[in-house]
Amino acid sequence: MPPRSAHEEYPTWVGFVFVFNLIVGTGALALPSAFSHAGWILGTLAIVVLAFMSYVTVTFVIETMACANAVHNWKRLQFIKRDRVIEHDEDSNVETIESLVEATDTDSDNEQARLVEQPITDSSIEQMPLNIMYCRKTYYSLSSKIELGEMANMFFGRSQRFLFYFCLAVYLYGDLSIYSAAVAKSLRDVACAHNHRANATDDDDGTERCWQDGILTRLDVYRLCLVGFVTVLGPFTFFNVQKTKYLQLLTVLFRWLAFSVMISIAIHRLLAPVDSTTLPITPKRADIAGIPYLIGTCIYSFMCHHSLPSLLTPIANKGRLKALLSLDYVLISAFYLALALTGIFAFADIKDLYTLNFVPSANQTNGLLKAIEYFLALFPVFTLSASFPIVAITLRNNLQTLFLDAAQLETYHFFLRRLFFPLLAILPPLIVCYFTESVSNLVGFTGCYAGTGIQYLIPIALVLSARRTCDNMIGRGIINEFRSPFKGTVWPMIVLGWTVACLVLVTIDLAI
């Protein structure tokens, strides 16, 4: 884990934007539909509670990141100490640590204080005087990027590591299924827009024709779009592709433009004069039966935990990290409520993918409005197509880690390394989406089952194990400034109880 160069860091506000953009993704498009099922009062309460629980476990992940850095720093220091002690006196007995700590140093008190407070990096360790090294107080830092998988290898046993990678693989499978279904459904609805009843459901797609004089049903066109999408983007899984900074910025621009336009159109519909012949839209206030569906969608919508090391480590000033994340979660919750509340009061029937409420209308004559409708309808195609290869490659790599020995990866057969695992990553989502086009069901299942593992269970297990490891290795005298404000074992147990309750509710709902 080499130290970061200055150009790899970015200011706090950029980190704020990146975290916001990571969380507000595909799940936000499924949220208004789930919100309408639970009712606006119960839905609002559920979003606030689920946002808080997600924030709690985010602080657990950050504390674990600091603990992982502390373990790395401690081991590195022990290695340097051993070498310096041997070099100090090769021919005599090695002096005890206590005598070295008491040894005088030529550095001034101010210089010692500066060395103690500066972040640990491998280069700083090399230049550190021996007595400063032994009274070191800043083991805990976020100076090295240690990914979630590396933390699992550091703090988990063999069986726990297997469960971690298995849970992550299931979540990524769900991600790819959601992306595939959302893109195919969006392309199908744009292609069939001029021959589609407004009150039609997914169940009607098997019989309703896509074109008035055509022979293909809407379901046939959906499946053709699905196969075409996977055929075009699937081959990227066989190679290594990275999401560039410019592609990420373009995705951010598209996403914010689309969400802003959707909220604006919904507000315009609310403020428009009501026709005396049209019944007012009165969404339900509360329906407990819709809560399981909303739980899975919200968990998926607040997911960011697996990418926190990549986003937070490059932030130059980490002193305001807790305030940054708190503000992120407050604003994201407010944004989700604005999107959902305007949607359920503006539309009598909300599609499982919110952009499908803005499918181009055959009666639209205004060129600008028609262009906006096409942009919104195709918005999932633009953004998800850019993310699909990245997620597929990540899944391929995790499957290889799960089933192969990473240290001997090059010794395995070419077919197994380069063909089998890429196919294993992209074919199951294709098969699942071929037989179901319900984005809401995919989001709910992925969010509740795999999502609770990534967002709740893994952070709990990581932080408890990390605390125990650091207490034994470093001691309790050195304070972790990145520790979660939700200390002790009470909060992890509260989150665990909440997780069990969510799983039970969703499982009962699926079984009935």
TrEMBL record:
Transmembrane segments: none annotated. Keywords: Glycoprotein, Membrane, Transmembrane, Transmembrane helix. InterPro entries: AA_transpt_TM. The keyword Transmembrane helix applies. It is found in: Membrane. It comes from the Eukaryota. It is a multi-pass membrane protein. Residues 13-66, 143-470 form the Amino acid transporter transmembrane domain. GO terms for cellular component: membrane. Belongs to the TMEM104 family. This is Amino acid transporter transmembrane domain-containing protein.
